[in-house]
Amino acid sequence: MRLAAVLLVLAPATQIWAQEPETKLVIQQAGREIGREQFTLTQGRGRGAPGNSLHATASYPANNPTLRLGAVLERTPESALAKFQLDLEGPGGPTVILAAGSGARLIIRTVAKGSEAGRELPGGPDVVLLDDQVFSLYTAVADLATPNGRSLTAVFPRTARRSSFVARREGGAGGGARITLTGDIRGSLATDAQGRLIRLELAESGIVVSRAQD
Question: How much is the pTM?
Fold first, then answer.
């Protein structure tokens, strides 16, 4: 698939996202704001299929950004991966990363200007797709976490990095949840009653993501 064709697929989705109420996030590292993110979490997937959809955009820095990212994550009612797209616009030009699951396989394709590459990785129901700069993707971790702790594997499609960790769920204020992360990914996250991210803290990187007050 050519880059232009991929971007045409993404463009209509961006128009749909704007019609939904957005949750805004502030991204800080070592106490300093480094970026902003907006996302929507809705019931249903493309073409009316059941499940849920996460649509996110992130900017680094928030003002006059040099890097913009757009992500789409669609999951089935069983939380299985249905669709993943990550669109990057930075100094190196546009790049689109697509991922799809098929049983125990995860297929990732990267389309950039003048190049296209694909790779296959182990997949399965305990695999979540994350990114180091799109933090609302951690919503999927919250959905899969259990009170006794669930072992998960995070795949970062940009680099094919894999991280094994355990997500343990506890009750949160107002019907939300608090999830503790241990293992290769250490930290905590909290969601509201609708499953939307409220706060995320990652120990290794010093990243703190929180709801914007404005």
Answer: 0.87
